[in-house]
Amino acid sequence: MLKNENNLFWFVPTPIDISRKLSKELSINLLIKRDDLFFQTGGGSKSRKILYILQKAYNEGYNAIVTAGSSQSNHVRATALFAAKLGWKSTMIIHDKKPNGSFEGNLKIVSLTGSEIQFVDKDEVKDAMDHAMLDFKQRGYKPLYIWGGGHCLEGSYAYFDAFRELKEQLGNLNPEYIVLASGTGTTQAGLEIGVRHFSPKCKVLGVSISRTEKKGKEAIIGSMHTLNDFLQNLIELPNDIFFDDRWIGDGYEATYPEMLETIHWAAKTEGLILDPTYTGKAFYALKKYTETGVIPKGAIVVFWHTGGLLNLLSSKEI
Ligand SMILES: Cc1ncc(COP(=O)(O)O)c(C=O)c1O
Q1: 89 pairs with which residues across the strands?
Q2: Ligand 1 in reach of 149 Cβ (< 6 A)
Q3: Do residues 132 and 91 lie in contact, with contact meaning Cβ atoms separated by under 8 Å?
Q4: What is the pLDDT of residue 168?
Q5: What pLDDT shows up at residue 32?
Q6: pLDDT tens digits, 228-239
Q7: 113 and 65 in contact (C-beta within 8 Å)?
Q8: How far, in Å, from the CA of 195 to the mean position of ligand 1?
Q9: Cα distance between residue 37 and residue 45, in whole Å
Q10: Closest alpha carbon to 47 in 13, 73, 74
Q11: pLDDT of residue 7
């Protein structure tokens, strides 16, 4: 008998890892929130977000999905896996060239699920998604249109709830800093509201993986407004947040030697596995913050591990 019959999935909190060796090296108290182990193959923040999106869709009678992303999109992989679990049809619009030879990483998993994959140019994404939606409707389905990256209210609500989960796990221990990789900003927006409500002295340090400071902050603050409206003005919204674009290198999926060295170092020091697209950049920034005093010595820091194992395994850079 399931715990809660109205819930699609049996929800299990992700573990918190105490990182003793890296704590010593960085002169802080480092905890790792292991969302990379979220209960789905490949795990990560995108799995947590899509679960909330699909729970709502299920309650509203949807039975098919159309979404989009790059070949190594964690969002697309997480969506395809849960769609297969639910027995829903899904179409994935991939704005990349079809790889020569066999598929790797996230794309390999997506193709295993039987989801329909269409490769298009970036400027064709909208038309392709509209077309896939129409096609499902004509075949009698009720398809859900999900923005790339799972950027929506349910996505940021998932991370408001995730901070509550962390708080419950930590009990009287109060984190002082949360460091995470920030892309569309949905994850950061949810954490910002959760932190401000449950742990107001804590600071969220969002590390951009591709966006400029201006664009990133606009997106996050926009999502915070939407979530806070939904939560009936739970918090007083800030005018500014921390979103740091100094560690993006040449942009999305671009790597640079210091970041790759940090990935090797974290793995050798304590078996912490990071990836070159997301968490490697965030952890490199964390290291720099401890060296430059942005994070003071002895601080209690939670590194929110948002996943990325399949990005590591499909990378040619490391
Ligand atoms: C592993 C991983 N970490 C972080 C992010 C960034 O999350 P968000 O788009 O919510 O900012 C992503 C987004 O693709 C991701 O896949």
Answers
A1: 64
A2: yes
A3: yes
A4: 97
A5: 98
A6: 999 999 999 999
A7: no
A8: 19
A9: 10
A10: 74
A11: 79
Residue in the block written with tokens 């800093």: 177
Nearest CA to ligand 1 atom 3: 306
Of the candidates 3, 31, 302, the one whose C-alpha atom is nearest the C-alpha of residue 159 is 302
Phi, psi for residue 6 in degrees, rounded to 5: -80, -15
Cα–Cα distance measured from residue 184 to residue 149, given in angstroms and rounded to the nearest whole number: 7
What pLDDT score does 150 carry?
A: 83
Q: What is the pLDDT of residue 4?
A: 54
Q: Rounded to the nearest whole angstrom, what is the distance from the C-alpha of residue 226 to the centroid of ligand 1?
A: 19
C-beta of residue 266 within 8 angstroms of C-beta of residue 19: no
Query: With a cut of 70, which residues of the chain have pLDDT below it?
Result: 1-6
Beta strand 177-182 with 203-208 is: parallel
Euclidean distance between CA atoms 309 and 120, whole angstroms: 25
Query: Which of helix, strand or coil describes residue 38?
Result: coil
Neighbours of 201 (CB within 10 A): 8
Alpha-carbon span 234 to 40, nearest angstrom: 31
Contacts of 274 (CB under 8 A, 6+ apart): 262, 263, 266, 267, 280, 283, 308, 312
Q: How far apart are CA 269 and CA 141, in angstroms?
A: 51
Query: Both ends of the chain: CA-CA distance in Å?
Result: 45
- In the numeric block, the tokens 């920034």 are attached to 285
| Beta bridge partner(s), residue 116 | 91
Pocket flag, ligand 1, residue 277 (CB < 6 Å): no
Confirm if 156 and 186 have CB atoms less than 8 A apart: yes
| Model pLDDT, residue 5 | 58
Ligand 1 pocket, residue 307 CB under 6 Å? yes
Question: Are 36 and 44 a contacting pair, CB within 8 Å?
Answer: yes
